[in-house]
Amino acid sequence: MKFERREIILIVGLFLFMIGLIPFMAPVYAVVIVILMYFGIKLYVGKKRKSIHDDVGEGICMECGSKIINKMCSNCDYSQE
């Protein structure tokens, strides 16, 4: 997991969420909930990003929109032959 700039927004948002939880529960529980939310969101985003990367592969063909494999489009390159 790599730290990126947008994670600052996530951390600030979770911190504000934690402050909002403190009047309703003990601060220790609020901190635990926010930490679990942080790692849950990081795990979800990582899996989603990997899924998108696996679907796209090397890229997408500009003509038909299919996945490019071995620098060749599976639809366009076969139709030209």
Structure at a glance:
By secondary structure, the chain is mostly helical.
Provide the descriptors you would attach to this structure in a database record.
single chain; 81 residues; mainly alpha; two-stranded antiparallel sheet; 2 strands; 63% helix; 5% strand
Describe this structure in words.
The protein has 81 residues and is mainly α. The protein has helices at residues 6-21, 27-56, 76-80; strands spanning 68-69, 72-73. β1 (68-69) and β2 (72-73) form a beta hairpin. α1 packs antiparallel against α2 (27-56). The longest helix is centred in the middle third of the chain and has 30 residues, at 27-56. The termini are far apart. The mean pLDDT is 86.
Number of strands: 2
Q: What distance separates the N and C termini?
A: 44 Å
Order of helices and strands: HHEEH
Strand order of the largest sheet: 1-2
Q: Radius of gyration over alpha carbons?
A: 21 Å
Give the helix/strand layout.
Layout: H1 6-21, H2 27-56, E1 68-69, E2 72-73, H3 76-80
Antiparallel strand pairs: 1-2
Helix pairs in contact: 1-2
